[in-house]
Amino acid sequence: MDSLKREREEIIELSGIHFESLFNISPLAARILGVLIIDGCKSGLTFESIVEKLSASKSSISTNLNLLLKMEKIYYFTIAGDRKKYFRVAPLSERLLNYKKMLESEKFVIDKMLQYREKTISCPEEKCNLENVKAYKIHISEVEELLMKTIAKFKIIESINNNQ
Q: How far apart (Å, rounded) are the C-alpha atoms in residues 150 and 135?
């Protein structure tokens, strides 16, 4: 095995391990993401090529592709005159919007905690908890602001690349 092929396999494996723990998905789904990132960014990959690259059963690949589609981690497109589906990883700007949704949900929970704690504070430990929650809310807001700037940058890059 030449060094580039070995490096490619290592990146797919590392990204697979990362995605498996990050998204709580099966090892195969995580490796499909890795393969699509490494090999599918130009023209996408067909179902058959994914089966071949990962040496997994068609049913396993199909199940995991459907999961990734449902999670909006990937999408597919077709080409006129070709009956095959081509799979690609969702644009990074769209994938990061999922993090924004998580942050919004967390901010909602934090606000509820703050309202509750402000009404029930009765000891120094609860006062400390309240201050921690306030500081955490500020942190989440700063992360959200940075995330939105990053998403805007990626959208510009993606727009430029789609127009080429």
A: 23
